[in-house]
Amino acid sequence: MPFLKMASVSLLFSLLVMACGQGESNTASGNRQGILHLGNGTDPQELDPHIVTGVPEHNILTALLEGLVLKDPSTLEPVPGVATHWEISADGKRYTFYLRHDARWSNGDPVTAGDFAWSWWRALQPSLGNQYAYMLFAIKNAEAYFRQELSDFSAVGINAIDDHTLEVEFANPTPYFLQLLDHYSYFPLHRATIEKFGPPDQRGSLWTRPGNFVGNGPFSLTGWQLFKRVVVEKNPHYWDAENVSLNAIHFYPTENITTEERMFRSGQLHRTATVPIDKLAVYRRDHPGLLHTHPYLGNYFYRINTQVPHLSDKRVRRALAMSIDREAIVRQVTKGDELPAYTFTPPDTLGYTAPAGFAYDPARARVLLAEAGYPGGEGFPVTELLFNTSEGHHKIAVAIQQMWYKELGIKVSLHNQDWKVFLNSVNGGNYGIARAGWIGDYVDPNTFLDMWITDGGNNRTGWSSARFDQLILKEAPRAETREERYRLMREAEALLLEDMPIIPIHIYTSKSLVHPALKGLEPNILNYTLYKNLSLDNLSLDKKPAAELPH
Fold first, then answer.
1. Any residues with CB less than 8 A from the CB of 143 and at least 6 apart, and which?
2. Tens of pLDDT along 49-98?
3. Which of 152, 246, 249, 488 could tie 476 with a disulfide, CB 3.0–4.6 Å?
4. Where are the alpha helices (DSSP H) in 102-232?
5. In whole angstroms, what is the distance from residue 241 CA to residue 252 CA?
6. How many whole angstroms separate alpha carbon 413 and alpha carbon 404?
7. Does the predicted TM-score (pTM) go above 0.70?
8. Closest by Cα among 5, 224, 233, 191 to 105
9. What is the gyration radius of the CA atoms in the chain, in angstroms?
10. How many CB atoms lie within 10 A of CB 545?
11. Which DSSP symbol is given to 549?
12. Cα–Cα distance between 113 and 475 in angstroms, integer?
């Protein structure tokens, strides 16, 4: 249209953009509409709490489902969830929970004690393949039932006395039990919905899809576009709905953290899952108010497949661990105030600290490798190091690849896979060495140690130790004092680190970029968030031009 003046063309274009709804950022519109936009790392593997194992899935499930107990984000102490209160017997072996009468599923059905009992029964079905089944083993006879040594579920210490009273019995006192109850493995599920779409132990049925999912949390699942976003909207049937400020949350898969940071700068996200390493210094210097960092109860480590012939010798595994310069990695690669890890359990976890199980000692590592039959790396097969797609994981892998070649003379190939493919590879044992991360499910050393029991769902290394199992499953739970319990746990951790089916790399810190409009976040070592406590102010960063933010 050559007769239009240039200014008119620009004006017309601007109006068209605004008409199409593209002139306003996600954060600006989100602040007005009460819609929170979050970076979530990856697309979820699934939304069945008895199948998933990752943090991205956890982030979504805690919006959709609620357990008996929640945590206060500022203290991590237990607070009422579906249960209004609870009683603990004098010997610590019986917990009685009293459920609120106004708890409802998102379809309006009442939430009952029977829903919890049935859901925990489902979690213990061996055919379901729940990798977190061991989380319930503290309950009387739960492990025996899961291992099919006991066929009568009524013998398991889970009893729905009536619709609003649930009793749980233990063989031994379990002082951390309340801390477990806001983990998704203990969440209730809507039985009728699951059975509508197939047998209770069927994996991958359609009950987890939008329009089918029935939850009891503050939000309901309304959208799931693969590799694009998961959308949850406020659940009007939630018992505390009047105190839920947000109207919706959009979770975005953001495996490429450079792209995620750009999304934050362009107003597409209120909060990122992490921060690119090369941007940390820039934000610290120029925009410290946007950068949120704090200690995180987690260990970044490598799993070793002990069933692979040349990795089956613990001398090889220890040589690999002792030839990694962790100080250099946290100083030159991760740069986020991480701590070098020489134990698996982070130091001072509820007062528990294990002695270092090894040290950075390349000379000793070379001796061990030679003793195992690979002097100077001679004859050592090229070994694949597998990691899920991430710039950060790649940078760490490259650094360690170079260290192993320099110090041991061994060659390692690097291979990345998307999250779901990566999980399938590790779960199936199709790896030699694989990147891993473990974030505590609750504040107790047990959450870092019980995962390594024989055939534990999250073990996946092929490693087994009868003495380790005895310490973690039998002796530590029977300890009469915290001091004795921790002594037994330190003995177990020493066994783990001596055999080295895992290689600890560093203790995490949490790093994210947060829009100033987002209120209610409380920093804590679990990165625990109560979505119903969050709100959005209609202000801010949206009014700043992108040029003012770091590039």
1. 134, 137, 473
2. 999 998 999 999 999 999 999 999 999 999 999 999 999 999 999 999 99
3. 488
4. 113-123, 142-146, 177-180, 191-196
5. 24
6. 11
7. yes
8. 191
9. 25
10. 6
11. S
12. 31
Mean pLDDT for back-to-back runs of 10 residues, the chain (551 residues): 31 32 84 97 94 94 98 94 97 97 98 98 97 94 96 97 98 92 96 97 96 98 96 98 98 94 97 94 95 95 98 98 98 94 95 96 98 98 96 95 98 95 95 96 94 93 97 92 96 98 97 97 94 87 46 49
- The amino acid at residue 41 is G
Question: What residue type is assigned to position 393 of the chain?
Answer: H
Note whether 191 and 115 are within 8 A (CB). yes
Distance CA 185, CA 169 (A): 18
Answer yes or no: are the C-beta atoms of 190 and 139 closer than 8 Å: no
- In the block, residue with structure tokens 């709100």: 535
Q: Which residues neighbour 237 within 8 Å (Cβ) at sequence distance 6 or greater?
A: 104, 105, 106, 107, 108
The C-alpha atoms of residue 481 and residue 487 are separated, in whole angstroms, by 10
Q: Which amino acid is at 233?
A: E
Q: CA dihedral defined by 452, 456, 462, 468, rounded to 10 degrees?
A: 40
- DSSP alpha helix (H) spans, 150-309: 177-180, 191-196, 257-265, 280-286
- Helix, strand, coil percentages (3-state) for the chain, rounded to 5, are 35, 20, 45
Token readout for 158 is 């889970």
Question: From the CB of residue 399, how many other CB atoms can be counted at a distance below 10 Å?
Answer: 18
Cβ 354 vs Cβ 494: under 8 Å: yes
* Cα–Cα dist 227/221, whole Å: 16
Q: Which residue is it, tokens 């210097």?
A: 285
DSSP code at position 349:
B
Query: How far apart (Å, rounded) are the C-alpha atoms in residues 489 and 353?
Result: 10
Q: Give all strands of the β-sheet with 412-417 in edge-to-edge order.
A: 339-340, 502-513, 291-304, 433-439, 383-388, 412-417
Q: Which residues contact 355 (CB under 8 A, 6 or more apart)?
A: 343, 490, 494
E strands, 123-278, in order: 158-162, 165-169, 219-225, 229-234, 248-252
Q: What is the distance between the alpha carbons of residues 429 and 403, in angstroms, rounded to a whole number?
A: 25
Q: Are 146 and 159 in contact (CB under 8 A)?
A: no
> Which ranges in 312-374 belong to alpha helices (H)?
314-322, 326-328, 362-371
**Joined tokens for residue 224:** 């799931």
